[in-house]
Amino acid sequence: MSAVAPDWLNNGDNAWQLTAASLVALQSVPGLMILYGGMVQTKWVINSAFMCFYAFAMVLVCWVLYAYKAAFGKQMLPFVGTPGPVVSMEYELTQAILPAANITAAYPMSTMVYFQFCFAAITVILMAGAFLGRMSFRAWIFFVPLWLTLSYTVGAFSVWGGGFLFQRGIIDYSGGYVIHLSSGTAGFVGAYWIGPRLKSDRDNFVPNNVLMMLTGAGILWIGWNGFNGGDPYTASPDAGAAVLNTNITTSMSLLTWMILDVIVYKKPSVIGAVQGMITGLVAITPAAGVVAGWGAVVIGLCSGSIPWVSMNIVGKRFRLFEIVDDTLGVVHTHAVAGAMGGFLTGIFATSKGCISFACVSSGGAEMGHGVQLGWQMAGICFIVGWNAFWTSAIMLFIKYVLRIPLRMTEEELMIGDDAIHGESAYTFGDITHTHGLTLHGHEPSRKLTDIEAEAGTPETGEGSKAAKQA
């Protein structure tokens, strides 16, 4: 007996939306896990990847219990919806509707909920890039659900879900504001409250595996086809335009960043090329399906140069960027690039693109709608202000009310993964550094120090010190 599909279901739209969602999910797990794991020092590989792994799971649980409806449900306040669960079969099988935005899609609510979850998860994971190498994992456990609840849902509802910025016609095609500007702002502010890494770690921050970093970057780039291609909520011509524009801008941005590296530093840098790739992906995100191809080229030139200046010149001359230890430069690659992309969207958005996207706006300044630039700037101010305030409030709540240190202990900062998780990213030979936990969670019968003592191994270096203290 075959199941009967409802009249409102479009099989092609449903298949594409689930595919797009899966591509976005792959950007986080494993994409950013691999990217972060390759970019950090060896002692931080597991902790960096595990922060992503945990956040992905925690966000989904919160999302289906209450956060989805706060971001995309019925309006409770001009900037947030009424929270509630989305876990009943009756709800999951109904047609996808965003009530406050008056948007209907030709697939079930379950598809919409999962698609939007993937965006919420990657926002938190992108922010983690600013905290790597010193944030307490216990603090991260509490930070993720609190920030999702108090910060992300508000930005998502205000811009996408039918809130006050949506009603004013702000254009954020796929998250330049909701995802990148918010994660970049929150990452920078949160890094201030957590405090810096060890001076030795900041001075010698060398990627432990460049090939692994490039693999993660490749997953991130290709996954962005679902990131931007899925946001028309249908397998439309606009989805194709968004995917093409995404790749145009990213390629142009990568090349521009690389050329600047060659001009200034006399060498093309792999890490620099990855940064240029990321800024291109971020900058085109608010504009992907509403600008023409030539607009995507201009945005790519700007995203490969303006964040380059922000990171390599401004970031090295202003003391604020020395005080705030933003590990992977998230404020430059996401906040600066996201705000710049949103501003340029206000210039280059076409009327035809806005109609295809079912946008309230009629186009940007280039089409004679100069007021759009004002609303794009207003959106930047709101997202930056809201995230700066609530990120600070959450950090202070965790530190002073929950009494959980935001920063690791000095011992953990010196040792890294072994001290925090009892595991090492790379183990060679028969001796592995297992301090307290093994694969099945049992206490190991013989500690590393016992084996070293029997073998007559000199106990020197941080690894032996860690074994003693463990």
UniProtKB/TrEMBL annotation:
Could you cite one Gene Ontology molecular function of this protein? ammonium channel activity
Keywords attached to this entry: Ammonia transport, Membrane, Transmembrane, Transmembrane helix, Transport
- Gene3D superfamilies given for it? Ammonium transporter AmtB like domains
Q: Where is the protein situated, by its record's location annotation?
A: Cell membrane; Membrane
A Pfam family per the record: Ammonium_transp
Q: Which residue stretches does the UniProt record annotate as biased composition, category Low complexity?
A: 454-463
Which Gene Ontology terms of cellular component type are present?
plasma membrane
Give the span(s) annotated as Disordered: 449-470
What family is this? Answer: Belongs to the ammonia transporter channel (TC 1.A.11.2) family.
The protein in question is named Ammonium transporter
Please give the organism.
Answer: Mytilinidion resinicola
